[in-house]
């Protein structure tokens, strides 16, 4: 938490905006979009209610901005094209996708509300998710799809690729929802930096073996 | 909801117990273990507070019974050994495990609180989960482990099998947490009876290809 502004140092517009976004993220994550009030967000940010209208328009638009910010931060901390170049192979792209996803899921460095907010959206989506799907998640799904097509073979059906995509994302997202349960089931498995890297690598190896096997069943690339 | 008992038809002990379990399930799922009160549960069940002590001992034991009931109901509706016999192959066992898991996750027929309660336990486990892990989830994990060992080969390391188990469960559990999100990402994919079966089968095919690929990398069964 940033310190409250004192009367002798009025907040700049940019500071106010940033504090409103953070306070809103906390309140939305705790209470959900409907139950959260603009009033509580402003109190927590040390700003007056008019600031919401001035900076964001209304509660709905504030929420959309908060969700976008949360997504952008996570992506910037662990970009899915890290270490890739134009000459990277599809296998390298798949590996980068999985490693960045798993590291995002285990990222304890981000404010806790960012993960919580995204969990809420997955269970009870709001209209704000549509924007993310159209502009962020959808394009990444399409990119992964294209990578998989290169590995499984050009003749692979859209349905097969869709199922493979879900199998990959399911393996990675598991730790987002069930980590406390997994830690109890596998107390010997540590999820420190090395453990997270090892888990990401094993998801990649499992997935690559699956894709190559499915490609071979289809009679190889065509 | 069952109708409230009238004064002319006192509830039998068995009925009271069953109504308390159901009311407790609803309240625990909505509010979590800590925030739920015995008073509210009894009100909802139309029973007096002494009935909790009489039937369960205390709130902690009531909670443990509710969680166990929820797990047992789900397992009985979709047993993981359905259609198997002593002569079933490891591949058939794996397939049965995955199909039953996926069908449990998509089961809309169970009371809604059962799924919610289990979600809560995965995110914020209570002591009651330890019992389930020791007596139910742990043994099933070990059984899956044994099946995988037969497919990947006897020399497979414990670590490899542990990672494979998590990859399998992650693929299945995905729909427990992220179904509304997935439905938005893949509007063309229907999760009716046929769609659920298709998804389960594709997880099995993906997994089998992965396991066989990993076995081949290890130089085949040994």
Summing up helix and strand content along with how strands pair, one would put the structural category of chain A as mainly alpha
Oligomer: homodimer
**Model regions low in confidence, pLDDT < 50 over at least 5 residues of chain A:** none
The average pLDDT score of chain A comes to: 89
**Silhouette of chain A:** elongated
How far from one another are the termini of chain A?
Answer: 56 Å
Please outline the major beta sheet of chain A: none
Strand composition percent of chain A: under 5%
Q: What is the gist of this entry?
A:
Chain A is mainly α.
3D architecture notes:
The structure is a homodimer of 222-residue chains. Chain A is mostly helical and 222 residues long. Helices cover 74% and strands 0% of the residues of chain A. Chain A contains nine helices and no strands. Chain A has helices spanning 13-35, 38-45, 50-56, 59-77, 90-105, 112-123, 127-152, 158-185, 193-217. In chain A, helix 4 packs parallel to helix 7. Chain A is elongated and about 65 Å long. The relative contact order of chain A is 0.10. The model of chain A has no long low-confidence stretch (mean pLDDT 89). The interface between A and B is large, with 49 and 48 residues.
Attribute tags:
homodimer; 222 residues; mainly alpha; 0% strand
What is the topology?
Two copies of one chain form a homodimer.
Chain A: H1 13-35, H2 38-45, H3 50-56, H4 59-77, H5 90-105, H6 112-123, H7 127-152, H8 158-185, H9 193-217
């Amino acid at each position: 938490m940033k310190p409250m502004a004192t009367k002798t140092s009025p907040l700049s517009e940019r500071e106010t905006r940033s504090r409103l976004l953070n306070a809103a993220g906390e309140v939305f994550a705790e209470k959900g979009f409907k139950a959260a009030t603009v009033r509580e967000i402003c109190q927590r940010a040390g700003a007056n209610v008019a600031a919401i209208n001035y900076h964001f328009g209304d509660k709905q638009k504030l929420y959309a901005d908060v969700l976008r910010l949360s997504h952008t931060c996570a992506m910037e901390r662990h970009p899915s094209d890290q270490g890739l170049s134009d000459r990277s192979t599809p296998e390298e792209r798949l590996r980068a996708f999985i490693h960045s996803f798993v590291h995002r899921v285990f990222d304890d460095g981000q404010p806790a509300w960012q993960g919580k907010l995204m969990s809420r959206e997955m269970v009870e989506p709001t209209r704000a998710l549509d924007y993310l799907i159209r502009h962020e998640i959808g394009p990444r799904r399409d990119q992964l799809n294209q990578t998989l097509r290169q590995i499984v073979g050009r003749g692979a059906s859209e349905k097969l690729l869709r199922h493979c995509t879900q199998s990959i994302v399911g393996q990675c997202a598991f730790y987002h929802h069930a980590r406390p349960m997994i830690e109890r089931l596998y107390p010997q498995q540590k999820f420190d930096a090395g453990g997270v890297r090892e888990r990401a690598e094993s998801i990649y190896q499992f997935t690559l073996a699956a894709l190559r096997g499915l490609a071979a069943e289809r009679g190889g690339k065509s």
